[in-house]
Each structure stands twice: as structure tokens, then as C-alpha cells.
Amino acid sequence: MKIKFELNGKAVEAEVPARTHLADCLRHHLMQTGTHVGCEHGVCGACTVIVDGEAVRSCLMLAAQAEGAKVTTVEGLSREDDLTPLQKSFRKHHALQCGFCTPGMLTTAHALLSEEPDASKERIREVLSGNICRCTGYMNIIEAVYEARSAYRGGAKK
Amino acid sequence: MSYVGQSIERIEDLRLLRGRGRYVDDLHRDAMLHAAILRSPLAHGLLKKIRVEKAKAMPGVRAVYTAEDVAPGNSKVPAIPVRLMPVDQLLPFEQPVIARTKVRYVGEPMAIVVADTQAQAEDALDAIELDIEPLPAVSDRQSSEKNASLLIEEAGTNIPITYTATKGDALSVRAPYVRRERLITNRHSAVCLEPRGLLATWDGAKTKLTVEGAAKVPFQSRRVISKNMDLPEDCIDMIEGDTGGGFGVRGEFHPEDFLIPWTARKLGRSVKWVEDRRENLLAANHSRDIEAELEIACEKDGTVLALRGKLWVDMGAYARANGTMVPRNCAQMLSGPYRVPNLHIQSTMFLSNKTPVGTYRGPGRFEADFFRERMFDLAARDLGIDPVEFRRKNLARKDEFPFPLATLDLPEKKEELDSGDYQIALERCLKEFGWEEKKKLQGKLVEGRYHGIALSCFIEGGAAGPRESARMLLDPDGGVSVFVGGTSIGQGLETVMLQIAADALGLPMEKLRIFHGSTTYLKEGFGSFHSRSTVMSGTAVLLAAKELKEEIAKRTGRKVDALRDVDLKSLAPISIESTFHNHRHTYASGACAAHVAVDPRTGDVRLVDYVTVEDVGKIVNPLLANGQIVGAVVQGLGGALLEHFQYDENGQFLTGSLADYLLPTSTDFPSVRAFVLEDAPSPINPLGTKGAGEGGIVSVAGVVANAVAAALAPLGAVPRALPLSPPRVWQMIQDARTAA
Q1: What are the tens digits of pLDDT across the range B505-530?
Q2: What is the DSSP secondary structure assignment for residue B465, as one 8-state letter?
Q3: In this complex, which of A74, A87, A94 lies closest to B623 when CB atoms are compared?
Q4: Which residues on chain A are in Cβ contact (under 8 Å) with B193?
Q5: Topology of domain B290-463+585-739, per CATH?
Q6: What tens digit of pLDDT does each residue of A67-80 get?
Q7: How many whole angstroms separate alpha carbon B329 and alpha carbon B324?
Q8: In the CATH hierarchy, which fold is given to the domain comprising B24-135+195-243+250-283?
Q9: In terms of pTM, does the model score above 0.90?
């Protein structure tokens, strides 16, 4: 079936079997491989993308359900010339090791801070508890997201 | 400027943070096919018949292969060789890459389907018809030892080997205090976030097999593929991309590492296989499944005289590539950093109808530290000695290095600790933890939870030999390309290697490029395991830099100190390859302390605080060293409190999803603090550095179990088995109440 949606600010269309989930559609049909698939049953959070402002697991959503939606992936949260403040903070705090969970961490954190730029560390911990990281032990991720909050205040979204 | 010793931000991050990493499932090739693997649904049975006709007729299916295709007629199905410490006794227990007449664990490969899409390949798995005659499953030590149901008939036993670790004469030690205990560690493993995967391409015109998704030990894997596919090594390229975690499991040879390249060659195409999470939990190496019966012998003042006893290691259905390290390390490392003058440990492998075992971060050591630290705490409590004082008294002393450990047999292996000043880390740990203050809470019930604290000391082996290579290429633009045999599994290899190279060459890091892991870069490489790369690849880089500078001095006729003062463009190209030989090991060391609060009504263990202090000899990058240690601690907390691969009595696997197999999340362990020291440089390498990727995990179960024991001492509950999950802790409390 043919589906159309907005991916990272651009209109896209894909021809996919009806059973294709959004993660596979992004990765293998639209070749946006920044979104990772870690469990395909909604536990690990590596595949998190932002759909109409909400952080969602793209392995639990059919591509067909994205029809007409605005979808943002880690590629859409990135710039060509430089890292964003959130990415810089991750780098500074060594908030990633193997990098596989990182796109999901960034999309989840971005969705959170866009809505709640004053989130406390406890709130950040709670929201990120749906994203598994096997390398870092999370301490540095929490610090990184916490420090990136200032970039989200005053309407600046990246 | 000096790079070594600085918290340099990682160069890897620039791509990984922008979704530009290149993991194996990100790769696409023209006309690429997809493989799916049919795995045994039964733990033990005779494989009478596999009917594949219906599957072959399914939409998009290009081929279905079974053992009969891999090894036609009477030829032998290739087996996965034992990579580390191979001895003849283990040969009958090696795993064939695909089951032919028998299945021996749930998850064992039986057939491969290749189709145009992954979904079509998976659909066709369901159309394969199986006739398996069930056999009694061996699911524990007792049934394994009876040998009534044999996994491998030709071998005549379920017990492949018993190792003995010996120091002094432990069996004849008589002591005023002796205690015997039975302790158990839980089957769990790495569970890397990126599932395993491979993309193999066969180019018949060039007689070239390219295998992408290689990790950990690409040169070794190439040797195994070469031998079993009767293809010269230089016809095979193993390519390493980005890797979503390793921890000892990813990259060690598994059945798929043969099956996927073989399938690609058979079809003359590119074939991709990426496991799903259930396959990962089911089929990637398990670890940590050990039962111990140990005796500790002490003087009344707490001086340890001997440790003796037996270990039984559940190896699962076969002796896989590096499985030997689990029983061997657990026996040899049982004494840890302590002056245990007499040790006699027999460590027995036994088979069961479960997933085969390999190494997982801190293999054998995590288990050894749980056993030893529990024994020490029980002894200290019995003798009325402060548990910290007990450890202080028994730690190896600064003037005793190199300090000998027990010697192993089959094959014989002596081992010694290279250097250390163990008291420094212990005292620092007490200070950072706030031991004296927290001690007041010991065994106290506060707001419904019993509080307990504990301390333990550990060592961490690193720097496995026999050698490692690095190549430096002076490029026409005046930059230098650095090629290393170490592999990247997320640990920051690229940044660390370039820090070392930049200092050694006297060039800014920006002038350097790093290439690693793939077999195309060097004649020989050994990869990343046993916390070896910073020491082994790092020293090889140091040697190559020195030789490159010597070569440039020769060509320019001038003494060369830093290359930034030399017109490098006019000298390019120059290529230098150097090798660091090493047959000794580094031993990082440290101390850790845990504070827990246990709810006696639910058995829930809350980690209030955790401090670990580790001396790594020389810190190359403090930010990354800290990251390794904290990450390892949290991974260990998962193993101690949450993670458990469970089977029923029929050998059926019960924990096939991340909802059943619990990994630590961000809310589980909010306070873990690491402090990294460099008080005792290693004498065996010029940098003085020690492997530091595993130390954080080694003592976690020991210290946490002791903290739980201290918390529940008023109730008389004694932890003897892991994980300390709510049901187990609750049961422990009920048992203590019943006994009282």
C-alpha cells in the first residue's frame, strides 16, 4: 500500500506491505537508518521517533498509521554543520558508548524538553525509563539531558 | 599539548549522535536476500525428518537449506572450534553449526530459509515440517551427572572436563575456624542492545567472500570460516562497522557465523541475517551459571588460611568457542586480590539441554567474587571481626608484587598479579562512600526497610596476548592513518587510540584518522576481549609511532621529536607496521561499597548508593574510564538483582522477551559513583596502563549480596543464590522465619 507523510520536514511517500511497521518503513523503505530496532516489542525504546509531537515506538506503530502525520527522527534533529545543544551535551557528558540506543534517547529527550524545559532530574529519569541503554548505566544520560534544558527555554526547540 | 590523561570528547560521537552510524542492519546491497533460521522448539530430541518442500514453494523463497545441504552424505557438519584453551578432551563436545540427527537445546539451528524479504523468510519458517522424537531433557546438575540421558552419545558422558586450580596445600590445612557453604550464581548474559547480524556477499568472479557485521575477533572468525568452507583466508574479508555493544558475546563464533557466509556463497549473492530479540536471548552465548560448594579456613584473628571446594559450571549443550574461560577463571580468580596462601578448587563443566555458554564481561570473575566475598562476610560475622578489617588484613601487600595466583591445569597456566597498592583504593572507597556514617544504619529498620552496607575488593585481568599490531601510513595530505587490530564495541577505541597516537607522533588529533577491526587493514590482528585494546593496540600504536619517527629522521637526516615540525607532505607515503608482544596480564584493582534498603514485606531490594574505586594503572581518558566503570556496575546490578534466563524442567526457555528478562532501566539504580586512580602503573607495558573495561562488574554481586545479608541479619536471612529478585528475597525471609 502507498502511504504519505511528512518526514523531518519533507513530504515522503512509500510503497509498503500493509503489515510493515513504521521503523521498518523508515529504515528499509525510506533508508533513514538512524532509527534503530532493538526488540520489536516495545520495551527497549531504541526505535523511538516523534509523531505529531509525541515520542512513540515506531516498532509498535504500523507505517499506515503515519499517513498524514509529521514524523521526526534523529536525522531530523541533526544539523549538517554542527551538533545541536542536546547532542553536544550528550558528547560532553559521555552519554553514549555503542550509540545504538542514542537515537531513541535523543528523540525521547527532545520530546520531553520541548514540552517541559524545566523537567527535574527525577522527571527526566522517569521519562527515559522506557529507553534501555546497556552501556552507560544512565548516569551520564540524565546529566546530559538535564544540562541541555536551557536550549529548550524561550521557544528555541533545538 | 598532551592528549593522554585528558577527558577528550569522543570522535565516534559525531556520527553516532546524528544517526549516521553504520550498524550491520543499516547496510543494503543490490539484489540482497534475507535469511531466517529455523530453531529447535524442543530441548532434546532425535531429529527424524525435516520437510522443506512447502516452505520452498512459499512466495519470495529462494532456498531452504538443512544439514544435508551443508554436509551432504556422510561428510561431517563443521563444528565451532574451542578458541581459548583448547584441549583434546573438549573435541567431542564442540557444536556442529547445524543440527543433523539430534537437537540439544531450544534455539539450536535446524534450517535456513532465504527469501527476497525478511518477512517472507520468516513466513516460510512456519511451513517447514518437523518430526522430532523427544528425549528426556537434562535440565540440572543432578540429571547431567547421572549420565542417564546423554547429550552426546559418542562422548559417553555429560561431563567434558574438570579443571583444578592449586596454590599451596589447601587440602591438608587444619584451622581453628572452618565453614562450608553452597552458593549459586544465575544464568544471564550480555544482551547487547543491537541484535547480532551479518551481511555476507559472495563474488564468484573475484573468488571473494565479504562478511560485514564482524566484531570482537574478526581475524579468528576468518580462520574458522576459511577452514570450514575450504577457502583461503585471503579470499575472505571480515568488515567491522559500528557495533551496538559486545560485552564478550557479540563476535565470538556462533553457528550463524558459518551459516550466513556459507549461504551467500551457495547462492552467489548477498545474504543478510539479523536476529530478533527472542533469538538473541535464546541463541547468543549465555553465561554465569555456576554452583559452588566451598570451604573457608581461617585463624581466629581472621587471617585466611585456605579456600577449597568444588564448582559445577552448567555449559549448556556444547563447549563453545570461549566457554572454557568461565570454569577456568572462576577457579583461578577465586582468591581475588587477597593473600589466600592455600587454594584447591575443582571446576567441573557439565552439559545440559540449554543454550551453550561463553564469556560475558568479567567471565568467571563475577561469580568468583560473589562466592568469595560471601564466604569472607560469613567468616567475619562468625568470628566477630569487622568485615572491613577482615579484608584489610587479607589484601595482598604493596611489596609482594608480582603476586602469584593459583595454577590451573589442562593446560597448565600460571598467573600473577602485576602490580598494585590495594589499601589505597579500599581507604578511598570507605571515604567516598561515607562508611563510618552509613555504618550506623547497619541492620536498622527505617520507614519499613532494613538497611545494610557492605564492602568488597576486586581485581580485573586485562591485556591478553600473544601480540597485537598497528600500522601507520603517512598520507599525501600530511595526515597519518592509524590502523589497529583492536575492534570497537562501543568502548571508545577510536578516540583512545588517537589520543595515544597524537601524543606519540607530536601531531594534533585532527591530523589523524583511525581504522580498526576489519581484516583488510593489517596482516594480523587479535581484536577486543579481556580488556586488552588500550594496552595491546595502544602499545602497538606507540611502537609504530616511534618507528615512523625514526624512519622520518633517517630520511630527513635530522633528529625528529614531534612531527608537527616536519614537512610531512613531501615525505608521504611512508608505511610502518609494528607489533607488541606480551605474554603477561595487567591487573587493575579496586574496592566497592553498596548501601541497600530491603522491604521485608515484598523482598524488594533498593540500591541506595554504590561507590567503586578502581586503580587502572594509567588513565588515558578519565571521562571514558569513568564511563566504562559506571556502565559495568549497572550491568552487574542487573545480573545481581534482575536478570535471569529461566528454563522449565523440560528445558523449555521461559524468558524470551525483554518483559520476561529484565534489564536495568534509568530509574532502577540512580546512585552509582566511580572514582578512577592511577597509583600502581603496570610494569608490563610502556604506558603503564591496565585493562579497565570489566572491573566495575566483577564484585557487584558479592558486595550487593553482602549488603542484603547485613540488612536482613536481624531476621536471620542468608543470601546464597542470585539474582536477589523480590520473590527470592521474600522466600529467604520466610525461610528464616520458619527456621526461627
Answers
A1: 999 999 999 999 999 999 999 999 99
A2: -
A3: A94
A4: 36, 38, 44, 46, 98, 100-101, 132-135
A5: Aldehyde Oxidoreductase; domain 4 (3.30.365)
A6: 999 999 999 999 99
A7: 8
A8: Aldehyde Oxidoreductase; domain 3 (3.90.1170)
A9: yes
